[in-house]
Write a structure and sequence with these properties.
Blueprint lengths: L17 H11 L2 H8 L6 H11 L1 E3 L14 E3 L2 E3 L3 E3 L12 H11 L3 E4 L7 H7 L4 E6 L5 H10 L4 E5 L9 H6 L21 H10 L7 H8 L6 E6 L2 H9 L4 E4 L13 H12 L5 E3 L6 H9 L4 E4 L1 H33 L12 E3 L3
Parallel strand pairs: 4-5, 4-11, 5-6, 6-7, 7-8, 8-9, 9-10, 10-11
Antiparallel strand pairs: 1-12, 2-3
Helix pairs in contact: 1-13, 4-5, 4-13, 10-11, 12-13
This protein binds flavin mononucleotide.
The site of flavin mononucleotide has 23 residues, from helix 2 and helix 13.
Length: about 375
């Protein structure tokens, strides 16, 4: 008789590693869609830096820590999180799997994570929220002319916070897409084309992003519209202390330190490298999320140690989605959380708040 060990290690059914999920996603997608997902702007320096920035830090082990069952529970703007992970608002989701954000959001709900419903998604805000109302509580909007209408619409739908993308007045100079003559079916970005009230939606967003150089809002224009928001709003795409201060000045309740996954300004600094200065500028109480480059549980640990309260996963969620729909995203969230939990035990952090700067070390150059 073989002893049956209670093991986290994969059975025949589940994906064993995130790398396996990444490979399955790469096999599932056509070359041009894969490039759209994987690619960055320009020379892709930022895309690469987003990963290597994490490699410059080390986590300090704590022998005999006495921490056996750490808690990954936390909260953001009063919304509970069983794990400090949100899924990103990414457009074109049905290009990666027919269930798109419906699958992502259901997986997030099952794992006690939150999902940010995108404006340029394949499904409407209403459909994403109906799929998993426990996770679909934040709606992402672009600060274009129709922003007030969209904000009103998502407020009526029951969303509890807005995520305003402030770093994307036009799409970045995405060289891979240009090489591929990438021309996706715009319906995949048109889930919010019209609201139930006929409000303008993503058609306008898409036009703006492709136009390069139409009307681009400044902080004062955003401030005017944001004053009317009935929900707290999160500024997504903050990469400097000055931008953090501007966003907070005009009423942002939280920040996402992000370079849009290396898809906008290239070369821009890695999100992780800018996080400590932004935390210092924002002060200790402003909720800060980090995205751009999160691929492992150790990445999450380092982001939290350097000042983030939670992280957002973009491509990691897309890999799970493309590989296997909802179960794929579920496995990504499970693997990330289990690695984080393991590191918390090994480094003596009993709670998310325990993960601080003293537990990590900048590696020698
Ligand atoms: C395919 C794709 C589409 C995206 N679409 C949007 C979008 O419509 N709005 C937005 O705010 N961010 C969008 N993003 C950026 C993500 O929200 C997030 O900031 C980024 O993916 C984080 O980096 P990571 O992919 O390295 O995790 C998109 C990212 C990808 C990869």
């Amino acid at each position: 008789m073989t002893a049956q060990l209670d093991s986290f290690y994969p059975t025949r059914v589940a994906f064993g590693t995130l790398e396996e999920i990444h490979r399955a996603a790469a096999n599932a997608l056509s070359a041009d869609v894969l490039d759209f997902v994987e690619g960055g702007a320009g020379k892709e320096i930022t895309l690469r830096e987003n990963r290597t920035a994490f490699d410059r830090w080390r986590i300090l082990p704590e022998p005999m820590s006495g921490v056996g069952t750490p808690s990954t529970r936390t909260e953001l703007l009063g919304l509970p999180l069983e794990t400090p992970i949100l899924t990103a608002p990414f457009g074109g989701d049905a290009l990666y799997h027919p269930d798109g954000h419906l699958a992502v959001t259901r997986a997030a709900q099952a794992r006690g994570a939150l999902s940010i419903a995108p404006e340029a998604g394949s499904y409407s805000y209403q459909q994403v929220r109906a799929a998993a109302p426990g996770a679909a509580r934040i709606a992402q909007i672009h600060p274009f002319a129709h922003a007030a209408l969209v904000a009103e619409r998502v407020t009526r739908l029951g969303f509890e916070a807005l995520c305003v993308t402030v770093d994307c007045p036009v799409g970045g100079f995405r060289t891979r897409n240009m090489g591929n003559r990438f021309d996706p079916d715009q319906r995949h970005f048109a889930g919010n084309l019209t609201g139930e009230d006929g409000a303008p939606g993503v058609a306008e967003v898409f036009g703006q992003l492709l136009k390069r150089g139409g009307v681009v809002w400044d902080w004062a224009e955003l401030a005017t519209v944001a004053r009317e928001f009935e929900l707290p709003w999160i500024a997504k795409g903050i990469l400097t202390p000055a931008a953090a201060e501007r966003a907070l000045d005009i009423g942002a309740s939280a920040l996402v330190v992000s370079n849009h996954g290396g898809r906008q300004v290239d070369p821009a600094p890695a999100s992780l490298d800018m996080l400590p200065a932004i935390r210092a500028a924002a002060g200790p109480r402003v909720p800060i999320l980090l995205d751009s480059g999160i691929r492992t549980g150790s990445d999450i640990y380092l982001a939290l140690a350097l000042g983030a309260d939670a992280v957002i996963i973009g491509r990691a969620a897309i890999y799970g989605l493309a590989a296997a729909g909802q179960p794929g995203v579920d496995r990504v969230l499970e693997l990330l959380t289990e690695e984080l939990r393991t590191l918390m035990i090994l480094s003596g952090a009993a709670t998310i708040a325990d993960i601080d700067r003293d537990r990590i070390l900048r590696a020698a150059a």
